[in-house]
Amino acid sequence: MTNTATQLDLSQLAVNRDQPAKSPVKFKRSWLTRYMLPGGILVGFVGLFAWATRDSFLPAQSITITPVVVSRAEIKQEGTPLFQAAGWIEPRPTPVVASSLAAGVIQEMLVIEGQHVDKGEPVAKLIDIDAKLALAEAQAQHTLQEAEVRRAEAALVAAKTNFAKPLSLRAALADAETLLSKTELALGNLPYALEAAKTRQHLAEENVRRKESAGAAVTGRILREARAELATATNTFNELVAREPMLRSQFRSLSQKRDALAENLKLLTEETRALAEAEANLAVANARADQTRLRVEIAELQLERMIVRSPIDGCVLSLDARPGQWLTGVGSSTSQGSSAVVGLYDPKYLQVRVDVRLEDVPQVQIGQPAQIETAAVASLIEGEVISVTTFADIQKNTLQVKVAVKTPPAVIKPEMLGKVTFLAPPSPIVEQEPGESPLKLFVPQSLVTTGEGGSNVWVADLTAGTAKRKAVEVGRGATDDGLVEITSGLQPTDKLIVAGRESVVEGTRVRVTSEDRTLSSGSWNTRGGQPAARTAQAPQTGS
């Protein structure tokens, strides 16, 4: 270390101050470099500062903006397999039950499982002896009541005849008039009869006096005869005298009777009552006949229901009863027993009940095509989604979906297991032309204004700090989230004015106070070929 220091020449660092220093050359400064150049630089800095802070001094409308929703349409080709799920085959929509409409005991089963039956074909027979006896009793009662109807009809015919031609009243009136005429005639002849009787009485008295004055010349027998003749004449005269009041009373009575019969013939009171009563009796008889006829029909129906028939054309799925079993019949109030006899299904209408995982449920749509695989058929079977049930299976974490079998082969039967491949349905998005951008632009429908000049939206020009009205073309209808597609007129980086656009005009200076992302959030996202939305971020400026 000492040796190295001794080797340095420190004399080279010394300054010779004996020689005078040379003075620098002095130049004369001009006013341009002395004043104008610094002033220009200062003015430039002031102008740049003023331009950068112009938004703080110039008046501007406060607004809220929202970005444009940009999506990339991912379209799956129609018929592309989406997912698979297992299930089992069953009748569509449900099995059909052939039930007994009448209560009774099964005597014989007429079909077996898997047998094809036609609509109305017997499938079981009940013991029908009671139904036959009930029918015979009802028929006998109906026959008896029909005889009552005929009797009532005959009575009605007689009542109508008596009403139309009251011959009995006319005969009674004629008899009364005859008796009245006879009485009137007798009353008119009574004075003459009294005069004759009085004359005979005088003659008889004169005859008796002459015979009594003759004395013994007249025999006693002749005298007695003369006295008897006098007594007879006297009695006849007295009788005629007493008959006059009786004849006058009889005349008055017959006159009243004749008048009453004439009035009754005019009014026909009894005949009218008899006619009405006969009509009522016939109506009652007909009603009772209808009741008995209904009883006969009920008994016939009950006897017919002793045969249980198939309600459809199909195959026997299950035998739900056996011979000797008691059936309650449809509509029975008892809770014991059953009315089901045979389970049926139509082999032309089958479906697959599929357990779909919950994560695959959003890809299921009504009318979606599907392919069905089963061990009984080597080829694939075409299917179609017809319904999605409303209750999920908590244990399996699945939801049941029903897939209709379009053309069921004859070999597939209910309860067979199958696997269903769900295919992509026709996409509602039109396939893009070659060279077309795969990006789709969407904006909230509430921000699109439609007028005579077409549709337009208010956009914030962040570079110029002004509001601009842009004409746009609206594509398909609004989505469930209220977004509409914009086919032209917007850029992915455009910012739409949400709040404050009511008071702006073209070129109005605006100041962005906040950005609203609720209207264009990424929640608008569906499956099955629909675009998944995202918001476009505006490029960051140097400011």
Automatic annotation (TrEMBL):
The keyword Transmembrane helix applies. The keyword Nucleus does not apply. This is Multidrug resistance protein MdtN. Residues 512-543 are annotated as: Disordered. Residues 527-543 have a biased composition (Low complexity). Residues 223-304 form a coiled coil. One of its GO terms (molecular function) is efflux transmembrane transporter activity. It comes from Bythopirellula goksoeyrii. SUPFAM superfamilies: HlyD-like secretion proteins (SSF111369). GO terms for cellular component: efflux pump complex. The chain crosses the membrane at residues 32-52. The lineage of its organism: Bacteria, Pseudomonadati, Planctomycetota, Planctomycetia, Pirellulales.
